[in-house]
Structure formats: C-alpha cells, structure tokens
Amino acid sequence: MHLTTIKPFTTDVNILPLTSRIPHIFPYVKEVFLNEIISCLDTDFFKPIRQDYIDFDKWFKTKSEEGRKAWIYELGYNQINAICIYKEEHSPKVTAHEHLFGKTLKLCTFKIDEKMGKKGVGELLLKKALAYATENKMENIYVTVRSNRNEVISFFEKFGFKNQGIYHNDPGDLVLVKSIFQKKI
C-alpha cells in the first residue's frame, strides 16, 4: 500500500480550504495534558495572556495538577503556536441569571500566536473543539472573551456563537455560546 504524505500548511499557504474539505482531520493539532507543556509557560507565547490575567501562571499550574487537557498547534518541538485549553461541564452558570443546560464544553483559554494571524489556525482549533463537542454529544460550547476584544468576538460570532451577556465570574468578560445539540422534550 502506498501512503501519500500531505503537508497542509506552510507559513505562505492558507489552510482554510483544506480544513473545509476534510472534516475531522486536524493537521499539527494534538491533545496534551497541561503538565506536558508546563515548561512552555515562560515563553513569549503566553505573555499576552499573563498581561490580561494576572494569576494565569498560578491557574495554569493548578489546572495542570488537576489533569486538565488542551489542544495545541505546534510547528516545531516545544514551539506552541496556538492553544485551546478546555473542560467539560454540566449545566454551568454563565451569567448572573443564566445557566446552560446539559453537557457543555468550555473553551477556557483560546490563544493564537499573532505570527499565525489569518492563516486559519484559529478556525482549525475551533473546528477541533466543535468536532469534540459533537462526538461527545455536548449540548453547548462556550467561551469567555474580554469585552474589548472585538476581533476575537467577531471570530466566534462568525461560527454561530451568540453573546449571552457578562460572565458571572468576571465583569470584564462576555460569554459567547453556541448550541450544538438540543435535547427534545
């Protein structure tokens, strides 16, 4: 049997058409436990997150010890270019007066290296999250985003996420939700 290797991404090529034609194939994306990448925490990649979230390093280390997972996109050894830290929840409270019902996937941290901008890497990670949510029969998927990050908010809205209001844990964040499956009553 002859196997053909497809190199779907270079820094000069946009991967959007490839990811649209071949669902559930996620080149350069791998699932890791946070403790596997804790050595990368001091890299420049995480610097912008630390600026927005003062206790990010402490949070990351705590979640690492708890066994939290992430999808990462890397083009080189120990060179993270994008990350989506996630967790499964059940009927989480998302705003002061609203809960999501059923199995829910929270995208806790969704970060793309600015050098990867407009290459489709964010779409690739989001499609991985949507595929995971679909395969695991999640009813919702949500992310919190700083209210001043208009480009990030627009990105998620392009994929059907709806603004549900102010996140109950942080008044600087908005909650963006996408319904995946709705249980029939």
Could you explain the architecture of this structure?
With 185 residues, the chain is α+β, with helices and mostly antiparallel strands. The protein has one domain (28-179): Aminopeptidase (3-Layer(aba) Sandwich), CATH 3.40.630. It contains 5 helices and 9 strands, in the order αβααβββββαβαββ. The strands form 2 sheets. It has a 7-stranded mixed beta sheet with strand order 1-2-3-6-7-9-8, with helices on one face. The longest helix has 15 residues, at 121-135. The radius of gyration is 17 Å and the shape is globular. It starts with 15 loop residues before the first helix and ends in a 6-residue tail after the last strand. Residues 1-23 have low confidence and may be disordered.
Major beta sheet, strand line-up: 1-2-3-6-7-9-8
Task: Quickly give the CATH architecture.
Answer: 3-Layer(aba) Sandwich
Stretches where pLDDT is under 50 for at least 5 consecutive residues are 1-23
Number of domains: 1
Radius of gyration: 17 Å
The number of helical segments is: 5
Which structural traits does this protein have?
two-stranded antiparallel sheet, 185 residues, globular, 5 helices, alpha+beta, Aminopeptidase, disordered N terminus
In short:
By secondary structure, this protein is an alpha+beta fold. It contains five helices and nine strands. The strands form two sheets. Strands 1-2-3-6-7-9-8 form a seven-stranded mixed β-sheet, covered by helices on one side.
Write the layout of secondary structure elements.
Layout: H1 16-21, E1 29-33, H2 47-52, H3 56-65, E2 69-76, E3 79-90, E4 93-95, E5 98-99, E6 103-112, H4 121-135, E7 140-146, H5 150-158, E8 162-166, E9 173-179
Parallel strand pairs: 6-7
Antiparallel strand pairs: 1-2, 2-3, 3-6, 4-5, 7-9, 8-9
